[in-house]
């Protein structure tokens, strides 16, 4: 007999399996019986499945052989006797609840006996004439296989059935360029479109909305059958075509055989789509360059019309070598190579803001006009990263920190405050954890950290990142509470943040420590001027508000407000 529906209101699947039982089932031994969940369902393992962690999920199409008996041994059904495996969708209420809960615990080729209480079987009514009411049932089940079926959009609009598993674990993203093959049929089998290979950008889509939705769930070389409802196909209007393809009628459900052959990964390097990288050939391993890395590349730079303005590392020419984050190349190229692996080949599209800007630039082979978008083909041949801190001795860490500090000083003097800030942060990173340092090394590291944090605070003030400047100075004062520079720079940050009371406190403390410090005295005068200016502006602001409120009150008394409507007003006392 085929399994009848048990009633939609009672067949909703309970996904909350007891976590402890689930762990026990994972190590269930042949011959052992354990309870699944809390409703009396029991499972006895007869044969272990394949050595894999995979089990079917709700919505998957599972194929099983089974024998069903009453507790007295009376057999009432058997797929083995019929000679045909039984196929159904798991967790959709197509079978009794005990099956939905039990089979989702099985692995491929596993065989088990499930003892199912009446509440998870046919209940009080039974299934006459073979199953009496309130019967506890036993099923010997072998899970032959299953096919993954997923509701991609979680609204029943696109169901994906995996026909052939893909490679790896990655899926295409919106910017990636995918290469697919597909065949589209109506429900009656009429082929409306067939393509043996087409490339498109995922976010732009192709043919119908379902394709871009589906490929984002697929792996390389995966094949799938999509069942597509009208909202992800061609909707109420359908599709009228010319030439060889067939029309799609209104409100048509489509069957799409889809193969994701391959894709090219496209990355928004700068997160504003102004430096975009498309991988043409994947690189090796996981390692990538970081700031200060020396890279060796082959590259060709072109304008939009194809004019080559630079070519390096080709035709037996020496590889082009530069150091990352040292302004030796345009910023877009600098930032893109930091995302590349050894052996990777990529195409870059770089907008003017990250290229040569608004100025004309004479390059090796041609002039790059102002405001030009530029295109590079880059091959990362090799790179040599700076030694990581965990590979250094304490002495090497201190030397490296000192070197980074000096690099920061050079960038600061050139007005490159962001680059200087990064160097100071890198310097502190080498010596922040000094557990392995001896006392002399700890003292050297302390002096370096104070110096780098103070210099970094100066960078943050220049960049108007006053909150970070305040934090850096506070960090210094936690180590050296009489550091005049830290007090003075924190006071500057507080002034910019309009925290005048805190600024005055720091400046007075600095004068107390160093009464003759000229910069601190100038800072105190500046603070007084800022307070005076602020109070004047605040008085003008409140005076203006009060004036407006007075006019509104006069208008209300004259009955004007009743006609025009009152205007509510919120006053920020800290404006």
List the helices and strands and how they pair.
Blueprint: H1 19-26, E1 33-36, E2 41-47, E3 61-70, E4 75-78, H2 79-82, E5 86-89, H3 97-103, E6 111-116, E7 137-147, E8 149-151, E9 158-164, E10 177-186, E11 191-201, H4 209-215, E12 223-228, E13 254-264, E14 266-268, E15 275-281, E16 294-302, E17 308-312, E18 320-323, H5 331-337, E19 345-350, E20 361-362, E21 367-368, E22 374-384, H6 394-413, H7 417-431, H8 439-462, H9 466-479, H10 484-496, H11 500-513, H12 518-557, H13 560-564
Antiparallel strand pairs: 1-2, 2-6, 3-4, 3-5, 3-7, 6-7, 8-9, 9-12, 10-11, 10-13, 12-13, 14-15, 15-19, 16-17, 16-18, 16-22, 19-22, 20-21
Note down, in words, how this protein is organized.
There is one protein chain. This protein is α+β, with helices and mostly antiparallel strands. Helices cover 31% and strands 25% of the residues. The strands form 4 sheets. Strands 1, 2, 3, 4, 5, 6 and 7 form a 7-stranded antiparallel sheet that branches. Strands 14, 15, 16, 17, 18, 19 and 22 form a 7-stranded antiparallel sheet that branches. A hairpin with a 4-residue loop joins strand 20 (361-362) and strand 21 (367-368). Helix 6 runs antiparallel to helix 7 (417-431), helix 7 (417-431) packs antiparallel against helix 8 and helix 9 (466-479) runs antiparallel to helix 10 (484-496). The longest helix has 40 residues, at 518-557. It is extended and about 105 Å long.
Task: Provide a compact summary of the structure.
The chain is of the alpha+beta class and 575 residues long.
């Amino acid at each position: 007999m085929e399994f009848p529906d048990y009633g939609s209101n009672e067949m909703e699947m309970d996904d909350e399996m007891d976590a402890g039982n689930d762990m026990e089932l994972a190590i269930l031994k042949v011959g052992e019986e354990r309870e699944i969940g809390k409703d009396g369902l029991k499972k006895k393992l007869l044969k272990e499945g394949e050595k894999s962690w995979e089990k079917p999920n709700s919505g998957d199409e599972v194929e099983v052989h089974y024998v069903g008996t009453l507790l007295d041994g009376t057999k009432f059904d058997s797929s083995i006797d019929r000679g045909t495996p039984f196929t159904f969708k798991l967790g959709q209420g197509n079978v009794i609840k005990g099956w939905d809960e039990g089979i989702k615990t099985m692995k491929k080729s596993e065989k088990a006996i499930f003892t199912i209480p009446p509440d998870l079987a046919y209940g009080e009514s039974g299934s006459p004439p073979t199953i009496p009411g309130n019967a506890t049932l036993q099923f010997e089940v072998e899970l032959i296989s299953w096919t993954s079926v997923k509701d991609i959009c979680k609204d029943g609009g696109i169901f994906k059935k995996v026909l052939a598993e893909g490679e790896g674990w990655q899926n295409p993203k919106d910017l990636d360029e995918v290469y697919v093959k597909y065949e589209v049929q109506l429900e009656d089998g009429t082929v409306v479109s067939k393509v043996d290979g087409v490339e498109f950008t995922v976010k732009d889509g192709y043919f119908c909305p379902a394709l871009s939705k589906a490929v984002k769930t697929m792996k390389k070389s995966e094949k799938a059958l999509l069942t597509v409802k009208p909202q992800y196909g061609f909707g109420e209007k359908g599709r009228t075509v010319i030439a060889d393809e067939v029309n799609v009628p209104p409100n048509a459900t489509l069957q799409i055989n889809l193969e994701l052959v391959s894709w090219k990964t496209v990355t928004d390097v700068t997160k504003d789509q102004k430096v975009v990288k498309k991988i043409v050939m994947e690189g090796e391993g996981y390692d990538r360059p970081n700031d200060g890395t020396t890279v060796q590349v082959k590259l060709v730079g072109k304008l939009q019309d194809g004019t080559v303005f630079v070519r390096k590392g080709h035709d037996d020419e020496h590889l082009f070598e530069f150091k990352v984050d040292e302004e030796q190349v345009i910023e877009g190229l600098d930032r893109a190579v930091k995302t590349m692996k050894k052996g990777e080949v990529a195409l870059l599209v770089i907008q003017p803001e990250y290229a040569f800007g608004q100025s004309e630039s004479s390059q090796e082979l041609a002039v790059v006009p102002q405001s030009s978008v530029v295109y590079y083909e880059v091959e990362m041949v090799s790179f040599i990263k700076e030694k990581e801190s965990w590979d250094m001795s304490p002495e090497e860490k201190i030397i490296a920190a000192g070197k980074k500090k000096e690099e920061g000083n050079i960038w600061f003097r050139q007005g490159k405050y962001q680059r200087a800030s990064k160097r100071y942060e890198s310097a502190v990173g080498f010596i922040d954890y000094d557990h392995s340092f001896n006392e002399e090394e700890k003292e050297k590291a302390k002096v370096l950290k104070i110096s780098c944090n103070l210099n970094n605070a100066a960078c943050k003030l220049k960049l108007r990142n006053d909150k970070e400047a305040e934090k850096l100075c506070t960090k210094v004062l936690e180590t050296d509470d009489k550091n005049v520079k830290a007090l003075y720079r924190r006071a500057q940050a507080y002034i910019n943040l309009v925290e005048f009371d805190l600024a005055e406190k720091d400046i007075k403390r600095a004068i107390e420590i160093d009464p003759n410090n000229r910069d601190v005295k100038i800072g105190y005068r500046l603070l007084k001027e800022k307070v005076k200016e602020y109070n004047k502006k605040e008085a003008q602001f409140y005076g203006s508000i009060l004036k407006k409120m007075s006019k509104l009150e006069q208008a209300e008394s004259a009955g004007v407000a009743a006609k025009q409507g009152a205007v509510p007003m919120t006053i920020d006392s800290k404006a």
